[in-house]
């Protein structure tokens, strides 16, 4: 799987779009709230792990550590 495609599917805009259409009572998306939540978690996880410089890495006082711990535990 290409990472660029994954980042498009698991993006914040997809999560927002799912919620928007669910709130507008699109019948097929009545129960998409868990999917929207999962997509947002994947977006946040990818963002927290995708750092360009080693100095931006995850540290004990980094807000990214909360994202990773919340996802895995």
Automatic annotation (TrEMBL):
Domain of life: Eukaryota
Domain Transposable element P transposase-like GTP-binding insertion: 1-57
Designated name of the protein: Transposable element P transposase-like GTP-binding insertion domain-containing protein
């Amino acid at each position: 799987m290409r990472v660029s495609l994954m980042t498009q599917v698991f993006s914040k805009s997809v999560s927002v779009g799912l919620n928007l259409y669910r709130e507008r009572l699109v019948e097929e998306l009545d129960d998409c709230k868990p999917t929207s939540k999962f997509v947002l978690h994947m977006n946040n996880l990818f963002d927290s792990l995708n750092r360009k410089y080693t100095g931006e890495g995850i540290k004990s006082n980094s807000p990214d550590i909360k994202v990773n711990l919340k996802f895995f535990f």
